C-alpha cells in the first residue's frame, strides 16, 4: 500500500515529504527548507530508473542538480522521526506540483 508522510530535520530546517511504495521505498520525495518553504528536492524513482537504464551519467548528474537526490532504501522507522506524520495523497500531490514548478519541470 502506498503511504505518504513527512518528517522534519530541525538542524537543517528541512521538511521531507515522501511517497513510499508497497515495499516501503521512496517512490517520490519532496524537500522544502526554511520559513519560506523553498523547494530543494523533487525527485522520482521512476525518473531515476529511466535515466539509469536509458541515459548516460551526465544526464543523471543534471537530474540530481535540478531535482536533488532520492532517498535510497526502505523508509522503515519514519514514524520515529521528529514531527513525523502521515499526510494525504492530495497534500503530497500539491507539494510535488509546487516543487516541480519551482525547480523547473523539464526532466
Question: Which helices and strands occur, and which strands form pairs?
Answer:
Blueprint: E1 3-9, E2 14-20, E3 26-33, E4 38-44, H1 45-54, H2 57-67, E5 85-86, H3 89-103
Antiparallel strand pairs: 1-2, 1-5, 2-3, 3-4
What do you see in this structure?
With 107 residues, the protein is α+β, with helices and mostly antiparallel strands. It has one domain (3-87). The chain is built from three helices and five strands. The chain has helices at residues 45-54, 57-67, 89-103; strands at residues 3-9, 14-20, 26-33, 38-44, 85-86. Strands 4-3-2-1-5 form a five-stranded antiparallel β-sheet. The chain starts with a strand and ends with a helix.
Sheet with the most strands: spatial strand order: 4-3-2-1-5
Quick one: biggest sheet?
5 strands, antiparallel
What would the principal axes of the Cα set say about the shape?
A: globular
**Share of helix, binned:** 25-40%
Poorly predicted regions are none
Residues in β-strands, percent = 25-35%
Structural class: alpha+beta
What are the secondary-structure elements, in order, as H or E?
EEEEHHEH
What is the averaged pLDDT score? Answer: 92
Number of helices: 3
- The span between the termini is 27 Å
| Assembly of the depicted chains | single chain
Number of strands: 5
Structurally, how many domains make up the residues? 1
Radius of gyration: 13 Å
Considering the chains and any ligands shown, give keywords for the structure:
alpha+beta; 3 helices; 5 strands; 34% helix; globular
Structure summary:
The protein is an alpha+beta fold and 107 residues long. It contains three helices and five strands, in the order ββββααβα. The chain has one domain.
Amino acid at each position: 500500500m502506498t503511504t505518504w508522510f513527512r518528517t522534519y530535520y530541525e538542524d537543517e530546517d528541512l521538511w521531507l515529504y515522501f511517497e513510499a511504495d508497497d515495499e516501503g521505498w521512496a517512490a517520490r520525495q519532496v524537500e522544502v527548507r526554511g520559513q519560506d518553504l523553498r523547494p530543494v528536492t523533487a525527485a522520482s524513482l521512476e525518473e531515476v530508473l529511466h535515466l539509469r537504464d536509458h541515459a548516460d551519467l551526465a544526464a543523471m548528474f543534471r537530474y540530481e542538480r535540478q531535482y536533488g537526490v532520492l532517498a535510497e532504501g526502505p523508509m522503515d522507522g519514519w514514524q520515529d522521526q521528529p514531527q513525523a506524520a502521515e499526510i494525504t495523497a492530495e497534500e503530497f500531490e500539491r507539494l510535488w506540483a509546487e516543487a516541480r514548478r519551482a525547480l523547473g519541470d523539464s526532466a
